[in-house]
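Hello forum,

I keep getting stuck at the same step: I have a sequence, I want structure tokens, and every attempt I make locally crashes halfway through. Rather than fight my setup again tonight, could one of you with a working pipeline run this one for me? It's a single chain of 328 residues.
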Amino acid sequence: MYDFEEERLLKELKQRKPKRVLLQVPEGLKKEAVRLAELIQDKAKVQVVVSGEPLWGACDIAISEAKIIQADLIVIYGHAPFYKPSFPVVYVEAHYRKNIDKLLKKTLPELKAYTNIGLIASVQHLHQLPKVQEVLEKAGKKVIIPLKKGHAFYDGQVLGCEYNALKIVSKNIEAFLILGNNFHALGAALAVPKPIILLDPYNEEIANMDALRNKIIKQRFAAIEKAKEAKTFGIIVGVKEGQQFGSVEYAMERLKKVGKKYVVITMNEITNDKLVNLYNVDVFVELACPRIAIEDVAKFEKPLLTAREFAVVVGDSTWEDLLNRGFL
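Reply #2:
Ran it on my machine without issues. Output:
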């Protein structure tokens, strides 16, 4: 179902002439890792080490792993460039190739009430946007594909934490249609207060994100309210190069002013098993990937806030600001 661009990758490797490559593959494509490693070693005569760690996004480039094994290049599948890493990287986007025509027709009834449609996709589906746009316009819709903004590498692209392009066009949009999965669609729903319709080619279903959005918003409100009563805060600084959001200096300054205790903590992966050992900390503020606090709320015994939510707790923002401007 995916285009692994083997010929393009082999050509790139022959031009770059690395001696050792670290291969990063997302969990959903991990079953292809051994085949790809064998192909590269056989055809490009390059030693390959497969990263066994999860790949959470283009922000999650395994630079430390690459340095430890003395690789001179990282090949990362399933993502487009997100930031400028301090290590050579080749990106292979793994475009989704399965035909979505039948599923697209099923989408039209969900969009019946809307005329102005914002059209977006995760990187695997960007090449399918022109076809979708054509179908929507034949059905009488006005389609806008947002221009790239922030960390997005392409027009119309959304990432787990990057929805600024949607916000810019939101005032002219009645609803957004997103090609991808639940993860990206939920992010869009938390970023803009507009209907988000998901066209999910993997599960072959159409979903309206309103119910899930409302559930998550209630969870975020509860976490923020509980954090307001906390005495000691743990400020988590992400040590992954591409997962650093917010300012630790700002967090420390504001906590001092409101009379709260705090401790600054560095973490690579944020898990409940690590946090429970810091038993005298009441609430945590994570300055790493904002989706960790939002997505994994049920996994944590204590409140875990994003940088934007922290601003509400210390009085620099309001709950209404979050609702109107977005949680992401």
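The mean pLDDT is 95. If your local run keeps crashing, start a new thread with the error log.
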